[in-house]
């Protein structure tokens, strides 16, 4: 990274007024799976310093499942969902109790916020989570966010708190995101092997062409690797959020603007709307609508609404208002949007113009399958 790049990275972090910090399980627990009190105390102290300087801080913390292993007599992270959820239900309380005690030493109040994918898939719940987090920051609390592992399912979950942190950073319009793990930066190869070099700065996807972004976690108590961290950085920077990836040991240095870790520069284009980023990254298609080539061109190239005339097939079951994937006839997902009809209604509308449908079935059928304002090209 040149001097200009270093200065931009420093100013992006130093000038941030609202920061989301994510810490992984491996940075908070002992090799045996219990909570590492010293590490948590150190992290709380670092964040308290930022809060004392007038910076709003949100902590996205993993560790609930890992913290619950030892009390339940489990030697390693369980693979089945039910046992993971049992461990999370024990560990989450222990995790929050420790955070509460550590932040209290700095006269700060910790507030627990547990989220599921459903909370960010449904617009009303998304807005409610947003209001709650903003209000907590306004009254001086430190929100501690985690996925609600006790009720999440394999099919509908964030999968890793890196992605959750990126979405929270977007939801809060944060200025910066700090991703902390047991690896000090992104490397152009396996960091444990000779010859690997730290990637100091990433300005866009082209900078990572040819880089093998493989999992580099070593402790075995977390779920995410470098792949999810890079994807999370992409989500955040697409939303205009400066992102730094480094180790928990470098947290203070990173927040002070030191050139540690890997700096992901925010995208230079206009920030996508909340709805666009929400549709692209915080939703999963409940089903699919298959488009003919003309409809694919209209949706992708012209950013047009999807009309009934361009639909050739419906896959899965969904209700009006659900997010659905829009696919071409080869099976590629080209867009995602909020559908205006139930899946059972669409077959009778396919291939018809909205004018014909309005004349034959009534004016309520003049509407699009997916309106362009409720659609994002992927």
Structure report:
With 378 residues, the protein is α/β, with parallel strands linked by helices. It folds into 2 domains: 3-277, Carbamate kinase, CATH 3.40.1160; 285-377, PUA domain (Archaeosine Trna-guanine Transglycosylase, Chain: A, domain 4, Roll), CATH 2.30.130. The protein is built from 12 helices and 13 strands. It has helices at 3-14, 37-52, 64-69, 81-104, 117-121, 123-138, 161-171, 226-238, 251-255, 274-281, 293-300, 354-361; strands at residues 18-23, 56-61, 110-115, 142-147, 176-181, 201-202, 242-247, 262-264, 288-291, 311-315, 323-327, 333-338, 375-377. The chain has an 8-stranded mixed beta sheet with strand order 3-4-2-1-5-7-8-6, with helices on both faces. α2 (37-52) links the parallel β1 and β2 (56-61). α7 packs parallel to α8 (226-238). The relative contact order is 0.12. ATP binds at residues 22, 181-182, 223-229. Catalyzes the transfer of a phosphate group to glutamate to form L-glutamate 5-phosphate.
Keywords, separated by commas or semicolons:
378 residues; alpha/beta; Carbamate kinase; Archaeosine Trna-guanine Transglycosylase, Chain: A, domain 4; eight-stranded mixed sheet; five-stranded mixed sheet; 17% strand
